[in-house]
Every structure is written in C-alpha cells, then in structure tokens.
Amino acid sequence: MVNVDEAIIAKYEYCGEHFEILVDPDLAAEFRNPDGQDVAIEDLLAVEEIFKDSKKGDKASEEAMLKIFETTDPIGVSKVILEKGHVQLTAEQKRQMQEDKRRLVINKISREAINPQSGLPHPAQRIENAVNEAKVKFDPFVSVDQQVQTALKAIKPLIPIRFEKVKVAVRLPGSSAGGAYSAIHHFGEILNEEWQQDGSWIGIVEMPGGLQDDFAAKMAEISSGEAETKTIK
C-alpha cells in the first residue's frame, strides 16, 4: 500500500457528484492498462476511503455513493472510479507508458506481418522506421491489438506489409523432438505430425508470417543444428 504523501488522485464526476480516491501512481497506471497484469484494488489504494475532496479530507457521503454506485463499499466504488474516471498521472509516467505501448505494437507487427512481395518478415527496425516516418501516435490506455491496426493503416503507404499466417514444415531428430514440443506451440499450431522409420519427427506448423526466421533459429538451437525447416508456399 502506497504512502498517502506519495499517492495521486483519481477522480470521477457524475450527475453533479464528485468522488476522489488516493492511489499508487504505478499500480493505478497498470490497472488501467488494457494489456497489463491484473492489479487488486486493495493493493493500489493509499486508504480505503472515498472522498469528495481528498486535499481537504472531506469524505463522500454514503447517500451520494448509493445514488451513483448503488453501494458504499470503498473497493467497489474505487473500481468504478479507476475504470471510468481520470487518473492524474505524471508526465514521466505518461511518456514511459506511451513508449512501452509503442514497443509492444512494433514487436507484434514485426512478429506477425510479412512483406507480401517476398513472403518474408520485415526486420523490426524497418517497422520502427516506418512508424516514426508516419508519425503514429500511441495511447497507453488503448490495447495493443487496436493500435496495431491503426499503425498498420498508417505505414502501408510506406512499406508493403500485411498480416499473414504461413505453414512451415519441420524435421527434427528423434532425440530433440520431445523437448521441442513446448517451443513449437509457442510459435503456432501443429497441423500435422508424423514419426519416421529412422526415428525422426516431421510436422507442419502454422504460425504468423513474421515468426519464420525465429522459428528456424529455435529449431536449430534445440536440435544442435540438425533441424530442417521449410516454408510451404
């Protein structure tokens, strides 16, 4: 639980009523991040109190809370304030959250998109350069998936790009196949698999197009260079 002196104010106004809570700035930001981890309300509150004016220490009336929230439970009320209200984040927090979201969007595009002219992934740096050239703006409170679509629309005039799944055939020596299963599932879905008479394992894996190179490198690592991979056209 954050110290009251280090807490920031989260506000919510509705039907002429004003409510405030004191929260941990970092945990409040994480709570509101649609791509973040779950944060317990109890952990981010400095005090389990609902205020009308936190600076004056004026508490909200039970009548007002019942009218707006239909409860006087501070945890339930705080959840609504955080979800629907305004959190006074610092400029540095906002800048860092925007940068974090920007990095997540670029990484997702580079992992899942391909150059349709070559069928190969774009390097992450090329995606980043296009995003910078297109002056894409990132919102820390909008999900990665939503902003991926916005970024793709902005950079398509600059580079040939689209999201596409590919099928990759892989052959592994029997000594490596068992340990490779979890790694393979990290990249995509095994569509077909078969054990060969020589003890080797072959499979067809469907995955986002941008993962082809990483997949080949991982299979080579697991098999000490004995893996064979080929993208199926």
From TrEMBL:
<dbReference type="Pfam" id="PF20268">
    <property type="entry name" value="SBDS_C"/>
</dbReference>
<feature type="domain" description="Ribosome maturation protein SDO1/SBDS C-terminal">
    <location>
        <begin position="166"/>
        <end position="233"/>
    </location>
</feature>
<dbReference type="Pfam" id="PF01172">
    <property type="entry name" value="SBDS_N"/>
</dbReference>
<protein>
    <recommendedName>
        <fullName>Ribosome maturation protein SDO1 homolog</fullName>
    </recommendedName>
</protein>
<comment type="similarity">
    <text>Belongs to the SDO1/SBDS family.</text>
</comment>
<dbReference type="InterPro" id="IPR018023">
    <property type="entry name" value="Ribosome_mat_SBDS_CS"/>
</dbReference>
<dbReference type="InterPro" id="IPR046928">
    <property type="entry name" value="SDO1/SBDS_C"/>
</dbReference>
<dbReference type="InterPro" id="IPR035647">
    <property type="entry name" value="EFG_III/V"/>
</dbReference>
<dbReference type="InterPro" id="IPR037188">
    <property type="entry name" value="Sdo1/SBDS_central_sf"/>
</dbReference>
<dbReference type="GO" id="GO:0042256">
    <property type="term" value="P:cytosolic ribosome assembly"/>
</dbReference>
<dbReference type="InterPro" id="IPR002140">
    <property type="entry name" value="Sdo1/SBDS"/>
</dbReference>
<feature type="domain" description="Ribosome maturation protein SDO1/SBDS N-terminal">
    <location>
        <begin position="7"/>
        <end position="95"/>
    </location>
</feature>
<feature type="domain" description="Ribosome maturation protein SDO1/SBDS central">
    <location>
        <begin position="105"/>
        <end position="164"/>
    </location>
</feature>
<dbReference type="InterPro" id="IPR018978">
    <property type="entry name" value="SDO1/SBDS_central"/>
</dbReference>
<dbReference type="InterPro" id="IPR039100">
    <property type="entry name" value="Sdo1/SBDS-like"/>
</dbReference>
<dbReference type="Pfam" id="PF09377">
    <property type="entry name" value="SBDS_domain_II"/>
</dbReference>
<dbReference type="InterPro" id="IPR036786">
    <property type="entry name" value="Ribosome_mat_SBDS_N_sf"/>
</dbReference>
<dbReference type="InterPro" id="IPR019783">
    <property type="entry name" value="SDO1/SBDS_N"/>
</dbReference>
